[in-house]
Amino acid sequence: MPQLGYILKMISQTSSGLKEECASDTLSPKVFTTAMEEIFKKLNLQERGLNVDGERLTDLRFADDVALITTSVKDMEVHLNNLNIESKKIGLKIHRGKTKYMTNYQSEETIMVEKEEIDKMDRYKYLGQTIMLGEHTREEVLIRIKAGWSCFGRYKDILCDPKLPMCIRRRMYNQCVIPTNGLWC
């Protein structure tokens, strides 16, 4: 697949993942997704990751967000460094300011990528969901309720307009406000 390598070398990483002049191009997200798929195929991840029903779960990917899953901090460091090496080969790089890690146990271990320490977090937001250790359900529910009210406020004129049929207002509420709460997860 030499053409893919040629295309990807012309694309440089910015905070959004792709060169700004390519951002409006509908092909850019597809090229980026293809590039990420090729990178992950080259990584040897069979022995890393979390065993879920006999399958190894090593990562979750959505657009340019990647969550890596390992069973130890050392494996995470190896995984990140390998990802960094493979990404650089095609002109992409890991955004150090956005790269964080979290463990589900107390640990003083650190993760280094190119002699830089990666920040350890006790919570982070992935695809709109706050992930944290311990029992923080109440806090997450309050965050979701606040987001719901904020969304409701944006559409208040439509949702509270008595001139509009209730079926339209209900549909607007169900499609815009309810998904913001995310409480069905």
TrEMBL record:
The answer on whether this UniProt entry bears the keyword Disulfide bond reads no
Q: Which InterPro entries match?
A: RT_dom
Superkingdom of the source?
Eukaryota
The entry lists its GO molecular-function terms as:
endonuclease activity; RNA-directed DNA polymerase activity
What PROSITE patterns does the record point to?
RT_POL
Domain Reverse transcriptase as annotated: residue spans:
1-131
Reply yes or no: does the keyword Membrane apply.
no
Keywords recorded for this protein, A-Z: Endonuclease, Hydrolase, Nuclease, Nucleotidyltransferase, RNA-directed DNA polymerase, Transferase
Q: What is the name attached to this protein's record?
A: Endonuclease-reverse transcriptase
